[in-house]
Amino acid sequence: MGKNLAGKSAFIVAVLVIFCFGIVGIPHGGLTQSIKDRIHLGLDLKGGTHLVLEVHVAEALGSATDRDVARLEADLQKAGVVGATVGKTDPSRPQTIIVSGIPAAKLSDARSVLQGTDYSTYDVITTADGNSALTMKVGAVRDLETRTLDTSIETIRERIDKLGVSEPVIQKYGLGENQILVELPGVDDPARVEEIIQSTAKLSIHAVTGGPYESDQTALQANAGVIPPDSMLVHGTGSAGAPDQIWLLKRVSEVEGTDFRDAQPGQDQNGRPNIRFNLTTEAGDRFYKYTQAHTASSATPGSMAIVLDNKVREVAGIQSAIRDSGEITGAFTQQQANDLSLMLRTGALPASISYLETRTVGPSLGAASIHQGVVAAIAGMLAVMIFMLIYYRGAGINADLALMLNLVILLGFMGFTGSTLTLPGIAGVILTIGMGVDSNVLIFERIREELRAGKTAAAAVQQGFAHAWVTIIDTHVTTIVSAMILFLFGSGPVRGFAVTLAFGLFANLFTAVLVSRVIFDAILQKKERGAALSI
Amino acid sequence: MELFRTTNIDWLGKKWYFLGFSLIFSVLGVLSMLFWHHIPLGVDFKGGTQVRVAFEQTPNEDHIRQAMDRSGVHNARIQRVSDPSGHAANKVIIALPESTATDQSHDAGRQSVESALSANYHDSAFTVEQVEIVGPTAGKQLQKQAWLATLYSLIGMLIYLWFRFELIYGVAAVVAVFHDTLITVGAFSLTNQEITLTVIAAILTLIGYSMNDTIVVFDRIRENLALSRRESLHDVVNRSINQTLSRTVISSGLTFLTVLSLYLFGGEVLHGFSFALVVGILIGTYSSIAVAAPMLVAYQDWRVSKGKSVTLPAGKRAKV
To answer: What does the UniProt entry say about where the protein is found (chain A) (predicted)?
Structure first.
């Protein structure tokens, strides 16, 4: 056994060194600083803001199909199908477009448009009354939702980066509920963060078909009491300092936040602040078609409204056709131009969001919690270690060494994997100490039993470990199973707890079964044959 | 030093006492859940706004309530933070019910609490330490998550025990754990302490711990059954409990010690968490002896009465 023992000891020392490295890393700027850099503390410990928000993906779906409605109308007209109505009738099914009133003579023309590659993301069915229903395919809907969520995360990340928060966490959250988790260490003013995230909400450019009006009534009167179905009334100031006015805008936007590639604040030839922007190629083509038909010199001059958060921010006349780059000039200050171009640059959210959860921990509470948690952990551990020494004498040293090594491995794991230590995580550490002790107690009690049955020290150690091993595996696997389930279905602090618990249990298996055994063997080797074991 | 060197207690003979004890506490808890404090869910699950405020001086709760009323914040629950060690009595939790935190106006509750405080106290007199706002959607989702996590982890353990032992062992262990959970949640209801996310983590921990304890006893029963087939199950179970008793007392005692230090020194943030563990360790240890093991004997008696099989399956033999 001697050679084997040396090998095992070397292995244990190697593990110890590796995990010490996990805790400290490459030392720099003092030991405490190194540890602080490696072991990430949760928001509950260092203070910060935790937000869970929901992206209303149905909105993005709605505006995508709105755009297709407009496209389909144009395509049908181009194909010579006149008199058909294209629209969405059921608000609870934003993914379905109904085409009704197709003249019988034009049915096949209409069908070839509907089944063209432009509408390949839709399932087309002909209903009993001769209408056609286009329903976006499940896969396409899912793609759009994923894209909306990803774009939202990117947008929020860029905005948060501009706030200068170090180590923010911005990621998908929950199991497919279109939620995003935002964690901002050190930020204890969630209202400000919420405002900044929300101010990037929905941005779009719409064609102006009427207005400005003084009030809703005058707007209605000007349109013979009915708002056209393809239009909507939107409030806003139109330009800086102007009173609240109402515009009639086309419901379908010409350009959306996601269509912007870049935007920079600048000045026009008269020195007025403006915003120069670039659109994506696809959006540029779309925009060109529209602006070309509505320049100031054309037969149908038009103007466009920049709508942010369902409020008209700017209304500007179309000076010339715009393809993929253009400029917005309005009566705004340089500061407003800067802000607006920042919003365009970071991209507006593709859909609006709402907040589901906000948790903020002030730095003082966090510091107090760390202090108390650490004191409790040390007090608990010391009490346990002292008891083990008194109760098991020599073998108590094994248990205490194993416990300390346990802690090193657990923290090393956390350092290597970059996982976060939370307050419940500290509780997880304490529980790990409990289970680590239990493993040692199981082994020691078994060895005592074997000794009482008259076995020699060596045989008792051998048998004690063999019997206890089965039980230790069973208890640890069951607890690891529950820790993993906690990790899968839990969130936030519960997850932190599950991670620490799982790591702790793996560390336990290693120390209780291997390390403790090697120490026993080393002691037995030095002893005279038949000498008593201190246990 | 050795405790309980050779105990020879007839544990199964006391099963009626155990049954009575378990029944009293379960029924008390259930009655409280049904008719008294119900299940006191915290902001995490119910939705709502909770603001934790630290005052410079010990605040007067009535004064805070009046300040809230003056500013039109009604239905606020104002609670002095209690710490087992008696510190930090100048902290107060102001909680608003779910209706104030809709998904639309998310932090209206927080704003009204803060403005009510600054209207009535000097700004330097208080610090907002912690704000939790949970919308109704998130609350329901967290409730569902907690239920699923508990259910799935029980199923996971049952399957593992079924695989390692026999189905009846798994069932007995799960029943014992259910008993522990019921009594612990009952204790929260009786003492009207809020069940938060961290308390759920504690309850799951206690499930793991109680399972751990039960498995140690079951492992010994399995081992003894394999060794002596002629002994009655009644005697085997009694002997197994006695043989593992010193381990049970030491391990549970030490775990209880660490949990107690958490309860006493861990600070009020962990108060609910450690309370659940303090109760859970005691009840979990008790149930592996008083609920899980007797169920095995009851199951075998039932099988005998049905004329099926005389011996309880020992399960897969432990490989030694």
So the answer is: Cell membrane
What are the tokens at B105?
A: 């106006």
In a domain, B6, yes or no: no
User: Quick one: chain B helix, strand, coil %, rounded to 5?
Assistant: 65, 10, 25
CB A479 within 8 A of CB A501: yes
Confidence of residue B309 (pLDDT cuts 50, 70, 90): low
* Residue B243 to residue A449, Cβ atoms within 8 A: yes
Q: What is the amino acid identity at position A320?
A: S
Which residues of chain B make contact with A435, given a CB cutoff of 8 A? 212, 255
Q: What are the chain A neighbours of B288 within 8 Å (beta carbons)?
A: none
C-alpha distance from A262 to closest chain B C-alpha (Å): 31
Q: Which of B117, B134, B151 is the last residue of a domain?
A: B134
DSSP, residue by residue, A129-175: TS-EEEEE-HHHHHHHHHHHHHHHHHHHHHHHHHHT-SS-EEEEETT
Is the Cβ pair B156, A365 closer than 8 Å? Answer: no
Q: Which residues of A are less than 8 Å from B157 in CB distance?
A: 478, 481-482
Cβ density class A198-214: b for 16+ within 10 Å, e for less? bebbbbbbbbbbbbbbe
Q: How many residues does chain A have?
A: 535
B218 and B194 in a common domain? yes
| Domain assignment of residue B145, given as a range | 12-40+139-305
Say yes or no: B59 and B206 in one domain: no
If one compares A320 and A445, the residue with the highest pLDDT of the two is: A445
* Nearest residue to A50 via CA among A173, A135, A229, A163: A173
The angle formed by the CA atoms of residues A389, A393 and A397, to the nearest 5 degrees, is 60
Of A356, A391, A438, the CB nearest to B135: A356
In the DSSP assignment, the letter for residue B58 is P
Same domain as B130, residue B82 = yes
d(C-alpha A65, C-alpha A95), whole Å = 6
> In this structure, is the dihedral angle defined by the CA atoms of residues B55, B56, B60 and B63, taken in order, positive or negative?
negative
Candidate from B111, B141, B216 with C-beta closest to A471: B216
Integer Cα distance of A256 and A201 in angstroms: 11
Domain shared by B281 and B192, yes or no: yes
| Domains in chain A with CATH codes | 4-44+364-526 (1.20.1640.10), 57-141 (3.90.1070), 200-357 (3.30.1360.200)
Distances (CA, A) of A449 to A368, A452, A465, A522, B245: 46, 5, 12, 21, 12
A positions 170-189 inside 8 Å of B (CB): 174, 177
- On the question of a cis peptide bond just before residue A212, with omega within 30 degrees of 0, the verdict is yes
Residues 126-155 of A with CB under 8 A from B: none
Unique residue bearing structure tokens 């990037």? A200
pLDDT grade, residue A331 (50/70/90)? low
DSSP letters for B85-127? TS--TTEEEEEE-GGG--SSSTTHHHHHHHHHHHHHS-GGGEE
CB contact under 8 Å between A383 and B257, yes or no, is: yes
Cβ atoms within 10 Å of A216's Cβ, excluding its own: 12
Task: List the beta bridge partners of residue B92.
Answer: B53, B80
Residue B273 contacts residue A427 (beta carbons within 8 Å): yes
Q: Higher model confidence: residue A70 or residue B280?
A: B280
Cβ contacts of A360 on chain B, cutoff 8 Å:
130-132
**CA distances to B29, B288, B298 from B15, in Å:** 21, 12, 10
Tell whether A310 is within 8 A of chain B (Cβ).
Answer: no
pTM (whole model) above 0.80: no
Please write the tens of the pLDDT for every residue from A401-413.
Answer: 888 898 899 989 8
